Amino acid sequence: MATVHVWTNMDSDAPRRSARTERRRLRLSTLERRSGLDHRRDVLLCQRNGKWVRQRYWHRTLAGRNDVVHFIVVPGKGDAVRTVASIAILIAATIIAGPVGGSIAGALGVTSAAGIAAITAATTATLAIAGNFALNAIIPPARPDAPGLATSLGEIDANAPTYAFTVSSQQNLARLGGRIPEWFGYHRVIPDVASTAWHEWADGRQTLYQTLCCTKGELEIEKIELGRTPIDTFEDIDYQVFGPGATADLFESEVYQASDVGSILLTAPNELVAPDDGVYGPFAALPPGQASQRFGLDVSFPSGLYLSSGASLAPKTAQWRVEARKIDEMPTIAAVYMN
Predict the structure, then answer these.
(1) How far apart are CA 328 and CA 211, in angstroms?
(2) Which of 62, 89, 94, 187 could form a disulfide with 131, with the two C-beta atoms 3.0–4.6 Å apart?
(3) Between these two residues, 300 and 250, which has the higher pLDDT value?
(4) Does the predicted TM-score (pTM) go above 0.85?
(5) 3-class secondary structure for the chain?
């Protein structure tokens, strides 16, 4: 049986302590989670049987029978605490380096002022580096998950999407490098984006394609809504749910959008000004080492395509040509111009 103590409110004269017991042998990382703590959110120190344990070893250090574990929540954010500690280390290194550097200089037989100053400076740097290594061991730097496209909506919600029912959960987000939510119980959830959304034009209509990730493992879905409206109400929306291990084949799952090719304004041949020949490109359509089965290119006329003659509008046509070739078996490039 292990006893776990959690100390909080350490910046006051009356710190608070909560205690509980665990009947099984558990890792310190598991005890941290069961205590409602998170070293990515709080600055935590851990002591097992009176000895400090580095955070990097929590996942493989067991606490068992007759063990006593203390978790101490350091007040303030990690960056502020680390900044103050770094300043203290630098001041201490400067003070200690004087006599230590003098002793080293005497042992080496260095008597010149420049030599002693150089040895003292090197000693200061060495002590500061050693102190910062010790600081990183006791208070590790924060390592938040990469929130991908959701950086402007708050790091906390991006790091913990499972139960974060805040404003950031009211839209689909891409949490690149982050956790995959795992749901328990009955919830109304906003699925995360599993890959970059893309769209294409066809027959005058723009179609949006999105791949969403609901959870890990199996999930029973009662209903799917767009906002608060059942998705079956929309006749122009198709969707499909794929279980674990299945291949999502409703549409192409991996689509690369070449930003260089977007927003190109084509110029008609009769409007060209020398030396402009109306050719745009070449552009890299894919990153190096990637291959594609097909290209998609959208051409639109925001103001319409017609010839105005008085009060009447005469329909017109336009032609353009797209050329593609390989570069050293690498990406394919595209050149676009109007004819």
Answers:
(1) 32
(2) 89
(3) 250
(4) no
(5) CEEEEEEECCCCCCCEEEEEEECCCEEHHHHHHHCCCCCCCCEEEEEECCEECCHHHHHHCEECCCCEEEEEEECCCHHHHHHHHHHHHHHHHHHHHHHHHHHHHHHHCCCCHHHHHHHHHHHHHHHHHHHHHHHHHHCCCCCCCCCHHHHHHCHHHHHCCCCCCCHHHHCCCCCCCCCCCCCCCCCCCCCEECCCCEEEEECCEEEEECCEECCCCCCCCCCCEECCEEHHHCCCCCCCCCCCCCCCCCCCCCCCCCHHHCCCCCCCHHHCCCCCCCEEEEEECCCCCCCCCCCCCCCCCCCCCEEEECCEEEECCCCEEEEEEECCCCCEEEEEEEC
Bigger pLDDT: 177 vs 112: 112
Q: What are the residues whose beta carbons fall under 8 Å from the beta carbon of 208, sequence distance 6 or more?
A: 197, 198, 199
Can you give the length of the chain in residues? 339
User: What confidence score (pLDDT) does residue 153 get?
Assistant: 37
Q: What is the mean pLDDT of residues 26-53?
A: 86
Burial (CB count within 10 angstroms: exposed 0-12, middle 13-18, buried 19+), residue 197 = middle
Q: How many CB atoms lie within 10 A of CB 24?
A: 11
